[in-house]
Amino acid sequence: MSTVVTLISDWQESDYYIAAVKGRLISHIPDVTIVDITHNVPRGGLAAATYLLRNAYHNFPKGTIHIIGIMDIESKRSPHVVVNYDGHYFIGADNGQFHDIFSSEPEQIFEITAYQEGTSFTFPSRDRFPVVAASIARGNDLSKIGVPAKLRARAKEPLEIYSREKENGLIVDVPVLYVDAAGNTVLNITRKVFSSTLKKYPFFSIEIGGFSNERDMKRILLRIDKISEAYQDTGSGDGCALFLDNDYLELSVNNGSLHDLTGLDMYSSVRIEFSAIKIL
Questions:
Q1: Where do runs of H (alpha helix) occur along 138-209?
Q2: pTM exceeds 0.85 for this model
Q3: Which of 62, 73, 95, 180 is buried most deeply by CB count within 10 Å?
Q4: 113 found inside a domain
């Protein structure tokens, strides 16, 4: 079986970067199978990248190598590492994403100390990571690549959920984790957290605001007060809230785009009001 290498980045599609990395991989691993997870991650969007990679990697066979091309420049605070987790290998800068990709401690973590091609240090996904991938593909022990290490950094993106008590309830501001190509919006709240809150406050209302084209005044565009099982549980053009198979809460518009309607994007937040009494 050929070596499988996945790529995820924020390079978009218009430049030579993707082709250069693939060319370098083929040069070092002639029988490689390269799979693009996506190259449309928002610029520097670590949270989106970890969400996508966390939900994609386990569908690949054990031994797959995953190259992470977001914020991949090495620094003292963000060294290059290769991580062995769940039978997969992850190569990238230790800038915070690994903590959110994994649900438990990795089997091995090595800081990369070798394998730099050329004298440029501005494109490690081309000049360093393919050589590391080739070493792994040849079956070399990770100790040939670097030295044992611990994950140092944590992501510093504004994805914390903010909440405050109110009379008979709780107001929660939940950040957007990801917006997909259809305009559906994934929030950084899981089924477990949501269900736990409902035990104390059994009623909820999700309010999504936007701006009127006429007066440029913010107003409520959608209000959702139930969790659906499928998109078609709501009427055409209505808002829909459901939990995905990864247990994150997704908001959408049936037969429409929530992003186009409301402008919600990365780093936006959505207010959820939980209440002990029915919300009118």
A1: 191-200
A2: yes
A3: 95
A4: yes
